[in-house]
Amino acid sequence: xxxxxxxxxxxxxxxxxxxxxxxxxxxxxxxxxxxxxxxxxxxxxxxxxxxxxxxxxxxxxxxxxxxxxxxxxxxxxxxxxxxxxxxxxxxxxxxxxxxxxxxxxxxxxxxxxxxxxxxxxxxxxxxxxxxxxxxxxxxxxxxxxxxxxxxxxxxxxxxxxxxxxxxxxxxxxxxxxxxxxxxxxxxxxxxxxxxxxxxxxxxxxxxxxxxxxxxxxxxxxxxxxxxxxxxxxxxxxxxxxxxxxxxxxxxxxxxxxxxxxxxxxxxxxxxxxxxxxxxxxxxxxxxxxxxxxxxxxxxxxxxxxxxxxxxxxxxxxxxxxxxxxxxxxxxxxxxxxxxxxxxxxxxxxxxxxxxxxxxxxxxxxxxxxxxxxxxxxxxxxxxxxxxxxxxxxxxxxxxxxxxxxxxxxxxxxxxxxxxxxxxxxxxxxxxxxxxxxxxxxxxxxxxxxxxxxxxxxxxxxxxxxxxxxxx
Length: 471
Known about the structure:
This protein is α/β, with parallel strands linked by helices. The protein is 45% helix and 14% strand.
């Protein structure tokens, strides 16, 4: 969709009904709750916390009630028993779930590792990204159908990965949907740090696909900083003629050698960390020695996900609010909702259907571009043409995403195999017979979350996968 938004709200409209689907998860539900409560126009909302695990949603509700008490706010919290009750009359819906939880996620990473395909996150491309997409799109289909019945004018703000296939499929289902990620704002901050310039003095343009959008302009006043980015990152991470900047103790952070190499290839810096980006391409994870060259720290998201204490992380947000007040942490969801409610215009970076926004990427793809958020909703800004090498790398990703969406919408096992086989890292590390064997093993292991791919699954039958108003 090239224009999307919630039903227009007048100045005298009631406080919004905001639904978080997947509210029992760790970190994001409470972080987004904190952000919502930090905006006066949203702080009197009805906050609906829905999860198939009601006990987990209740834990989030406990933290939310504490935040409301700390702020002396008028917000109220609901924990509905079913999805229709949660979505009835909603103004905004946020999706933050992981279908199958850590148990399904383990199959996404551990089975490919048996075949030499080492993913550290596995939520964007690769076998893990494809299978997470297959599970998630089916759940988003249920959310979309329920929204059309219970709150057809609501705006769906999706944080669930893989972002591009999820938004692509959900848009086809006919709801107002945008996809949100923090990679653009985080990378803008990283580049300012690397250059030693104040972030507040920087302006930039970024466009591409989620996790691989490109900073094609980056300025401080009239000064074009792109040449400095190229020279500094090359000297620091490839030539190693400049000292590395100190990092925090966060194990996710690493030297930016992967992104520096991609910058050398395309001319431009992109929006996902070197750790995560290393699993998108064929060049960085072929051997343990090569991986160690490009990444100086080991980071395994499965291990982290398996050891998170939800109550502890929730309490950290509460303790921080008690100490510092209820402050917005930087995610785009709450500012977008505030803009729709109050009419305050903001520029945000959002994932939407392309429809000619980026002229040299496929029009049906999902792209990440700048958008205007205000009372009329969220309206993408036409970008134009990406630099050729940037567009070429994005089109490789779009091919995998398109096959993932088609497989999810049709139940075609053939297309699942094709999506996995066309992934750059997978094709570099394995043969087609082994890729087929791995994919079948993953389909069997994840069958309880993917019943549509059972023995009677349909074979690909042309372009009839469009399941929404774009048939």
